[in-house]
Design brief:
By secondary structure, the chain is an alpha+beta fold. It has one domain. It is built from one helix and eight strands; from the N terminus they run αββββββββ. The strands form two sheets. The protein has a five-stranded antiparallel sheet, covered by helices on one side.
């Protein structure tokens, strides 16, 4: 007697449905995964950019304030801007320096030169932390940059107290 081997070609309907179901579940999760990866990348990139920008700004303000004559420091604000958002002083070399907020811009004026240091400024404040010691100035600012989907990323630089070296 001859034995016949049953050769099966193709897939059953159940196998085909299972494969389609698995591919559907995977394809539904991939766009969300890509979106999350993009958000993570964007947040970290912005955080790094804002930290670098804030460090540069704080170094420049600190350097200028350390060379200021403490008797010439004036803290006020421009019309329509937050309180204490402008500082003016004269350095030991005799040049006048002013930092102030103009909308979302941080402006530095030194002599006749006007420079925009940041276009991401959200908040800026200068203050004398101790009313009896006008040789220490507290500087505080917040930078904010567009993230995605109408959201913003804010980085607040904690107040740094700067001692004016020239009384």
């Amino acid at each position: 007697m001859a034995k016949f081997k049953l050769i099966k070609k193709g897939w059953t309907l159940v196998e085909l449905i299972i494969v389609v179901l698995i591919i559907s579940v995977i394809s539904l999760g991939i766009p969300q995964l890509i979106s999350q990866i993009y958000r993570f990348y964007r947040i970290n990139t912005l955080n790094m950019e804002l930290q670098q920008e804030a460090r540069i700004i704080m170094e420049l303000i600190s350097k200028d304030l350390r060379h200021a004559r403490s008797s010439t420091i004036t803290i006020d604000s421009l019309s329509g801007q937050p309180y204490y958002s402008r500082i003016s002083f004269v350095t030991i070399k005799g040049s006048s320096v002013t930092y102030y907020q103009e909308g979302r811009n941080l402006i530095r004026i030194s002599g006749i030169h006007r420079k925009t240091l940041s276009k991401n400024l959200y908040y800026l404040a200068f203050a004398f932390p101790q009313s009896y010691d006008l040789s220490i100035v507290s500087v505080s600012f917040t930078l904010e940059k567009y993230l995605y989907q109408l959201q913003y990323k804010a980085l607040h630089m904690a107040s740094e107290k700067i001692r004016v070296m020239n009384e």
